[in-house]
Structures are given as C-alpha cells and as structure tokens.
Specification:
It contains 9 helices and no strands. It is mainly α. Helix 4 runs parallel beside helix 7. The longest helix has 24 residues.
Length: about 200
C-alpha cells in the first residue's frame, strides 16, 4: 500500500494564471509536461515562485547538460537509487532507456561500480556519484580519471546532476510524492543485487 502524500498534488482546478503559464510553456523554458503535468510538478505547484526558479536549473541539468544523455541518466539513476527515491528511479528508468541505457544496465545500477560489465567510464561515473553521496566530494583518483575524458563544463555538469537529483530525491521522499500512473518502481528484489 502506498502511503498518502504529505503534500497532495495541486489539482488543475486550483491553478492560478501563473501556474497555468508555467505548465503551458514547455517550448520556451517551461516545464517538460508533454501535455501531462507530473505529480512532482503538481506538488511543487503549492509554491509557484520556487517552482518557476527551480525549473530553470532543472531544465539545464536535464536538457542542456554537456554530458551525453546516457551518462547523465546513469548518474541520475544511481543517485536516485542511493537516495531511495522510487519516484525518481521510475521516471529516469524510462528516460534512461530513451537515452540508450539497456534494461540489463539499469538492473546493474543498484549494485554500482563493482557490478561486472561496466565500461571504465561508467565505473568512474558510478564511483563519483557514490563518493558525492557518501563524502560530499569526489576523490582525487576518481576526479583525475574523469578529467582525462571530460572537459571542465562536463565535470561541473556531473557534479550538478548528482546535486540536483539528490535535492529532488529529498523533496520527493519528504513530501511523499506518489509515482505517476504507469511509472515503474524499483526492480523487484534489487536491494543492491541488481534485478
């Protein structure tokens, strides 16, 4: 049984003109709604000014990052797993597949960098995510390995992707945002062992 949200998603009948504008202007920097406003956005709709400003940053991390989409999604899924944010996991498992992650790779993400089959680059990205989560800092060894492949903008985008989705996971978990209909949860029995 899914617990009730601590902050209910705001129904469309309660949207003021500012919210209607935010939810209706995807093409010019608004929310990525594709015609359906997700529960995360409808929950944050209780604070339109915060939502509007956070959206600018979130859109950079998700749509304008200098990281290749597959690598961005690998990092986002790993931090979503580490933060135990099932909502985040479900949304980004779908996005990750669109970005080129395979089902088998998605099943290995809970195991992390030690799972067999990752490329050296994937191992470094997973390690960096783990280090940021546990130590709030990427180790010198991991940093140097990533810096050999990524430019300074990409390095910053790695850090900000992990930071953004740590923040988002905290909000989702604390507000009790319920997964949207049809969005998968964590892999069954995955508890750190993969699918």
């Amino acid at each position: 049984m899914t617990p009730a949200p601590r902050i209910e998603p705001l129904p469309e009948s309660q949207w003021d003109p500012e919210l209607s504008e935010i939810f209706g202007r995807e093409s010019d920097g608004g929310l990525p709604t594709s015609g359906k406003v997700l529960n995360i956005f409808r929950t944050l709709a209780h604070h339109p000014k915060l939502l509007k400003r956070w959206t600018v940053f979130g859109n950079h991390v998700l749509f304008k990052s200098t990281l290749p989409p597959r690598e961005r999604e690998l990092v986002i899924l790993r931090i979503g797993w580490l933060c135990r944010s099932e909502y985040e996991w479900g949304q980004h498992a779908r996005i990750g597949r669109q970005a080129g992650l395979t089902d088998e790779e998605i099943c290995r993400i809970p195991i992390g960098a030690d799972a067999p089959g990752w490329s050296a680059n994937d191992v470094d990205l997973l390690r960096a995510t783990d280090e940021l989560h546990h130590d709030s800092r990427v180790s010198d060894a991991t940093w140097n390995s990533l810096a050999a492949r990524y430019n300074k903008q990409q390095m910053l985008d790695i850090l900000f992707a992990v930071g953004q989705y740590t923040l988002v996971s905290m909000v989702l978990n604390s507000c009790g945002v319920v997964r949207d209909p049809g969005v998968e949860g964590f892999p069954a029995g995955a508890e750190g062992r993969g699918c």
